[in-house]
């Protein structure tokens, strides 16, 4: 009995559709054209603009630097600008106006900027002199200076990518040399 009722309902729906003329070949073609143009408008347009607007950034290769290998990253010849703060190497190329050649803070480019930032000083003796010696242990900094340094670090972490770590030449040799 159920089967008969089901069958009758099915036939009724088909007759209604046929008499309303929904399933004609012309309507099928029109529906296909409509679907195609909707697809072209929304999907293809969106994906091509996505491609140009959201080009993936170049991959960041995290490396270990020493004061000497960091030195060339001073922005000369349109190259990248890096500096280190308490062992973290930041890519500050986006702040080229500050740190690049001729910028007000170009003394920090390619260097360990920790002490200079902590003390708010551009003096030469703020920078590690012996590039093959130990890193600046930041001895002798007061509470205010350490707080100032932390403030800078927080700002840089928000603004720039960390692209590596800074270690002394000795530490670098120990980690990569023959065991
Ligand atoms: C006469 C004193 C100074 C003036 C007028 C000055 C002015 C400025 C200005 C206008 C900015 C841009 C702020 C922004 O747009 O975010 C800036 C940023 C900065 N300043 Fe100074 N500054 C002075 C001293 C110093 C000193 C003594 C240091 C450290 C040694 C320093 C380190 C920096 C750094 C690291 C930035 C941030 C750049 C960045 O966002 O990457 N400034 N300064």
Q: What percentage of amino acids are in beta strands? A: 5-15%
Identify the overall geometry.
Answer: elongated
Whole-number mean pLDDT: 84
Low-confidence stretches: 42-49
What about the largest sheet? Answer: 4 strands, mixed
Radius of gyration: 33 Å
What oligomeric state do these chains adopt?
A: single chain
Keywords: Endoplasmic reticulum, Heme, Iron, Membrane, Metal-binding, Receptor, Transmembrane, Transmembrane helix
Transmembrane segments: 20-43
Organism: Drechmeria coniospora
Pfam families: Cyt-b5 (PF00173)
Describe this structure in words.
The chain has about 180 residues and is of the alpha+beta class. The protein has two domains: about 1-40; about 65-175, Flavocytochrome B2, Chain A, domain 1 (Roll), CATH 3.10.120. Helices cover about 50% and strands about 10% of the residues. The protein has seven helices and four strands. The protein has helices at about 1-20, 25-55, 65-70, 95-100, 115-120, 145-160, 170-175, and strands spanning about 65, 80-85, 90, 160-165. The protein has a four-stranded mixed beta sheet with strand order 1-4-3-2. The longest helix is centred in the N-terminal third of the chain and has 29 residues, at about 25-55. The N and C termini lie far apart (about 85 Å). Mean pLDDT is about 85; it is low at about 40-50. Protoporphyrin IX containing FE binds near residues 92, 95, 105, 116 and 121. Its main location: endoplasmic reticulum. Keywords: Endoplasmic reticulum, Heme, Iron, Membrane, Metal-binding, Receptor, Transmembrane, Transmembrane helix.
